[in-house]
Structure formats: structure tokens, C-alpha cells
Design a protein that fits this description.
five-stranded parallel beta sheet, binds 4'-phosphopantetheine, alpha/beta, about 15% strand
Length: about 170
């Protein structure tokens, strides 16, 4: 869980559980990749007791999705996000704001992270409006109840989810 490809420039971390990566996440990462020299998508390990995908699977999936984007890397982390960001030499954490409820969730986290590491900024970006209702939690719920996730997640993720369903190991 150390960053690879440590070329220079400003690095932003886009952290999350990404279980699974949604089209809203992709939108956020691509916006970040236009604003910063380098972006690391950082998958939180052990966020949920029964995730749909293991952390290793999520890293593999996200790598596949961003394989053509030279300034996007994928990694995993556990423990404090600010410690991970410090180890990577990141300038910023990027979070997505879909609605006021996201702001209420993110605001105390941003201030806590600033308390822990004053040099690290939290940057909030609004995703494209067509993804305002898309979350990993709802996507997973639709999937687990047998619904289609087409259009909610990238085709790569859809294929991985179908493979999960085929092996019937999802809860
Ligand atoms: O996709 P999620 O689950 O909303 O992502 C939440 C995440 C990973 C950003 C948040 O849980 C986090 O930063 N976890 C790391 C632990 C940490 O640093 N906690 C203190 C933050 S105030």
C-alpha cells in the first residue's frame, strides 16, 4: 500500500470505499485528473464487514477502468487518511458533493482532517448532475435485489458484478 510511479507535480487523493466504483466516482476522478498533475484513487480496506468486492478486487477493477489515464493511479490504504496522504506527499483530498446531505457528512471530516494535518486541503467537486442520485450503496442494493445496474457503473464494473452474480457468492 505505497504509491507507485512517483513522478512530480501536485498529487490529489480521491479516497473511498468504491464498493463498487460508480459512474459518479469516475466523473469525480476525471475532474480531479484535469485539475491536478496526478491522482491516486485510494481504496479504503476493511470499510465494511461484508463488501461486495474485496479491497484487492476493487483495486483491480478501478485500475482496469482508468488504465488509459496516465496520471491516475490506484492504491489501497487503511488507518488514517491524512497519514496515508502524508506518506504519498499529496497536496489535497478530493471529495464529491452530490447534495447538501453530502456536505453535512463531509464538512466535519474535512475539518477533522485539517485539524490532524493543516497542510492538506480538502477539495470538493460536484459530479455531473446525471449522477446526483448514484451511490455505491443504492447500486449494490439494486444489484442484490436482481435489478440492472447498467448506466450506474462503468461497463468494466458491470462485468465484474455479473461475474459475482454468476458465482453467487454475493450476499
Ligand atoms: O466511500 P466512503 O465510504 O464514503 O469513503 C469514506 C472515507 C474512506 C473517505 C473515510 O471513511 C475515511 O477517510 N476513512 C479513513 C479513516 C480516517 O482517516 N478517519 C478520520 C476522517 S475524519
Amino acid at each position: 500500500m505505497t504509491p507507485t510511479g512517483t513522478s512530480g507535480g501536485r498529487l490529489a487523493i480521491v479516497p473511498g470505499s468504491f464498493d463498487p466504483l460508480t459512474n459518479g466516482h469516475v466523473d469525480l476522478v476525471l475532474r480531479s485528473a484535469r485539475l491536478f498533475d496526478r491522482v491516486t484513487v485510494a481504496v479504503l480496506v476493511n470499510a465494511e464487514k461484508q463488501p461486495l468486492f474485496t479491497a484487492a478486487e476493487r483495486v483491480a477493477i478501478i485500475r482496469e477502468v482508468f488504465s488509459v489515464h496516465a496520471n491516475v493511479e490506484v492504491d489501497s490504504f487503511d488507518g488514517l487518511l491524512v497519514e496515508y496522504a502524508r506518506r504519498c506527499g499529496a497536496s489535497a483530498i478530493v471529495k464529491g458533493l452530490r447534495a447538501v446531505s453530502d456536505f453535512e457528512h463531509e464538512f466535519p471530516m474535512a475539518l477533522m482532517n485539517r485539524h490532524l494535518e493543516p497542510a492538506l486541503e480538502t477539495v470538493c467537486l460536484m459530479p455531473a448532475e446525471q449522477y446526483a442520485y448514484v451511490s455505491s450503496r443504492l447500486t449494490k442494493e439494486v444489484f442484490r435485489l436482481g435489478g440492472s445496474v447498467h448506466g450506474l457503473v462503468p461497463p468494466v464494473v458491470e462485468r465484474w458484478m455479473q461475474a459475482k452474480r454468476a458465482t453467487a457468492v454475493h450476499k
